[in-house]
Amino acid sequence: MHDAIRAWLEPRADEMVELLTELVAVETENPPGRDLGTCARLLRDAMTRLGLAPEVIELAPSGELEEPAVVRGTAGAGEELLYFHGHFDVVPVQDRGQFTLERRDGRLIGRGTADMKGGLVSMLYGAAAARELGLLGDGRIVLHLVCDEETGSVAGAGHLRAAELADPRAVAMVTAEPSGGRIWHEACGAISLRVDIRGREAHVGQANTGVNAFAHLLHVARPVEAYAAEMAARDNMVVVGGLAGGGSNFNVVPGAAFFTVDTRYQPEEDLDAELKRLTGLIEGAAAEIGADVSVEVTQLQPPAGTSPTHPAAVALARCVGEVEGTPARFERCEGILDIRWYAQLGIPAFAYGAGRLDVSHGPAEYVDEAALHRCAAVYASYAATMLGGH
Prior knowledge:
single chain; alpha+beta; four-stranded antiparallel beta sheet; 18 strands; 35% helix; elongated
């Protein structure tokens, strides 16, 4: 089976690079979420050529997202169901040249090559290989490609959940996040907050009549910084002030200020309790000085995980080991992943991809071309194992 999969993929190596080149050139930076419809249609056309029966599901307007959409495709027609999941939005570039793919010394360099347009190419060709080679038995792969993972995936994956397009009876789900060839079977939970402080503007010549929102911000943020230090000692990450701002001019007492709080919690933490504690710290500090403060919860995402001993995990590890030639490694992802949307339904869910996390959002983002092909082979092999009984 593995020889047949490799033989199917090898003559299509240049096709895979050409598709990735086209995908990278679509500037799907998120935020703000531009050119999403353009990329969705490009994926639809590629999936049509590969026989993956795509449809573009147009989503309701959401924030700044341009033409938000989910691309859904299918390989096979049986009852057993395996999900391949991915996203086509990317983080903002450091340089516009990152939207031009460079093929050099076995690497494909450009924004999204690792996270995760390269992974999408591997998944599309892996699914097509499994279908063309008759490996799916009485099963089918359903592909879900979403548009907003980099900003929480509430519009895209959230729509799949709300519209009941994710079937709890599925045997497994895998997403092509840049795990560097490891299997991420767990992911952290997340809380994100925006804290707004209202004061009263006054010109510097009458500063005593104003209420300085920035001074209140400093007081309110101090206990959150102490909380961040405490959380770090428990292997939880908290960023205070990732975004911050306020004021209208250098010579005016600021009448408004804000800062953000972003967190990543290990799966054993109680997110509801931590949210209550965080908001309590902020509200308590505000009460001490009579500050006018409001807290908006912009993200609350639970952790997710599947045991490495689950049969679906064991099968994925075997496929990875057979293709890569080395034993598969299970790890916890220190970020949040779209596996949570499926795990919440009881579906065994994993992230496995060719890209590397340490280069994914940087100025020299790349994926190894050979790793892209190996991952495509793993996806085809996993489909054959889970659906075709190979």
